[in-house]
């Protein structure tokens, strides 16, 4: 060739050309908004390490859900912070407990216009902060925890959740939850399995968000950052057990895992852009070190490109607003 080959740059010449030739795009419907509700507060409480995110009251949560519908957001994932905790996380089973009540309130507010998801885990409800109950040695007891998860599943489905999000990483949790749903007549309640969930330092701000009581870590049940193949095992087991969708979490430090899972999964794949990922970008932007909007868009697009069908992100509503105006 006697001329430089300008094929790469030809398709980058104008915004319209770049828009036409974009391989991936974000849409509001791909986004899931994680939201916190705290029992016993009358005003929303800011979360210091997650600027812009709050612990909601019932009223502000209902408003956030209605706003998500307006913006075309795909779903909402609810986390409850109870006023009273105990060793077995009893408040998670109370039909009027903070999370079950929130599911019911949000369902009454938005009906079927938004996919309503409940976090199905004990860590917000236990006084020790672990995702399950403990045995006499303080080890998280897998099978005793499963019994409670089955009951939580029924409580959340009774409250009106469309989707349950088991995030505790107990072995066999999907099978137990599916069975409990079938036996209680909730055959259409879906499961979004936190299938490949890693023990991560990036969960830090979430611990503030839910006033976590945890001392220590979750390394006996969450995955080790050193492992890649193991994610496929976790995903295969969850799909066999009945997962309707599977999740990789965190997102940005695990994009290889996400790509692996996207390549093999016969069910839709989610990724959770977690609290620490949110906090890092917000902190850098607040210092003027990066362009906030550009960094947010790029980070979520990167997660989509790696293979996520849906993305849980604390920016879901704001991002949906930007996508609608562009
Ligand atoms: C457990 C749970 C956690 C998150 C979602 N579900 C915390 C953990 O596993 O330690 C973290 C989400 C985030 O950091 O944004 N119920």
Structural features, described:
This protein is α/β, with parallel strands linked by helices and 326 residues long. The protein has a single domain, classed as Aldolase class I (TIM Barrel). α3 packs across α4, α5 crosses α6 and α6 runs parallel beside α8. The longest helix has 18 residues. The mean pLDDT is 97. The site of ligand PBG has 10 residues, from loops.
Briefly summarize what is shown.
The protein is α/β, with parallel strands linked by helices.
Report mean pLDDT, rounded to a whole number.
97
H/E order of the elements?
Answer: HHEEEHEHEHEHEHHEHEHHEH
Q: Please bin the fraction of helical residues.
A: 40-55%
Query: How many domains make up the coordinates?
Result: 1
CATH superfamily: Aldolase class I
Question: From the 3D coordinates, which CATH architecture would you assign?
Answer: Alpha-Beta Barrel
Number of strands: 10
Our measurement of the CA-to-CA distance between the termini, rounded to an integer number of angstroms, reads 39 Å
Count up the helices: 12
Query: What would you call the structural class?
Result: alpha/beta
The CATH class: Alpha Beta
**Small molecules in complex:** ligand PBG
User: How are strands sequenced across the largest beta sheet?
Assistant: 1-4-5-6-7-8-9-10
Q: Compute the CA-based radius of gyration.
A: 20 Å
Largest sheet: 8 strands, parallel, barrel
- The CATH topology corresponds to TIM Barrel
Q: Which outline best applies?
A: globular
């Amino acid at each position: 060739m006697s001329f430089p080959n300008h094929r790469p740059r030809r398709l980058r010449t104008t915004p319209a050309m770049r828009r036409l030739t974009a391989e991936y795009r974000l849409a509001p419907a791909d986004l899931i908004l994680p939201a916190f509700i705290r029992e016993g507060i009358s005003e929303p409480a800011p979360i210091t390490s997650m600027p812009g995110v709050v612990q909601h009251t019932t009223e502000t949560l209902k408003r956030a859900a209605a706003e998500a519908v307006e913006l075309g957001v795909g779903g909402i994932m609810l986390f409850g912070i109870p006023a009273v905790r105990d060793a077995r996380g009893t408040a998670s089973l109370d039909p009027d407990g903070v999370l079950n009540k929130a599911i019911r309130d949000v369902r009454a507010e938005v009906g079927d216009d938004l996919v309503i998801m409940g976090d199905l885990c004990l860590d917000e409800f236990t006084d020790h902060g672990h995702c399950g109950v403990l045995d006499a040695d303080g080890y998280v007891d897998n099978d005793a925890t499963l019994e409670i998860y089955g009951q939580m599943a029924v409580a959340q489905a009774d409250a009106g959740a469309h989707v349950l999000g088991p995030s505790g990483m107990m072995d066999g949790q999907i099978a137990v939850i599916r069975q409990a749903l079938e036996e209680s007549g909730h055959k259409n309640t879906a499961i979004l399995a936190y299938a490949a969930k890693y023990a991560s330092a990036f969960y830090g701000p979430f611990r503030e968000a839910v006033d976590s009581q945890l001392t220590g870590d979750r390394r006996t049940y969450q995955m080790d950052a050193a492992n890649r193949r193991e994610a496929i095992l976790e995903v295969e087991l969850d799909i066999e057990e009945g997962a309707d969708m599977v999740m990789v979490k965190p997102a940005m430090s695990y994009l290889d895992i996400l790509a692996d899972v996207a390549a093999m999964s016969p069910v839709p794949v989610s990724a959770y852009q977690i609290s620490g990922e949110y906090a890092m970008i917000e902190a850098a932007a607040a210092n003027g070190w990066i362009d906030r909007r550009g960094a947010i868009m790029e980070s979520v697009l990167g997660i989509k490109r790696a293979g996520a069908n849906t993305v849980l992100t604390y920016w879901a509503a704001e991002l949906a607003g930007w996508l609608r105006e562009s």
